[in-house]
Amino acid sequence: MYFICISGLVEQSGINDRDIVLNLCEKHLAIKPQVIKTRRIGSSRLCVTLSGPSAVDDLIFSSRILRSKPDTRNIFINFDLSKRQAEQAYIKRQARRLAKSAGDKSKAEETDKGQPFR
Hints:
Shape: globular
Order of helices and strands: EHEEHEHH
Region (Disordered): 96-118
Largest sheet: 4 strands, antiparallel
Radius of gyration: 16 Å
Distance between the termini: 14 Å
CATH topology of the largest domain: Alpha-Beta Plaits
CATH class of the largest domain: Alpha Beta
CATH architecture of the largest domain: 2-Layer Sandwich
Strand order of the largest sheet: 2-3-1-4
């Protein structure tokens, strides 16, 4: 199975979460992934099961568009990482920021390689 997490997508009464995800994708991202299952974690976090790895990659890549629109600016689509993977990603981001602030571009670029979520 292939999972993503969507944060900031609020629950809407009378509309199931699958339809909310599909509406978000069609209206704001111009893609239509095959959503297998959705599971709500809290009020604004939603785990979504997609049909395959290409659907996950397409959705993650397209999610950058959400930053440019005021009504979707607070919606984030990310890989569903285990706790260990999330910690590793955090450590890599910290190292990249530290290297970037120190002006060491080669170290910052090296830190970008080998993302922990794949």
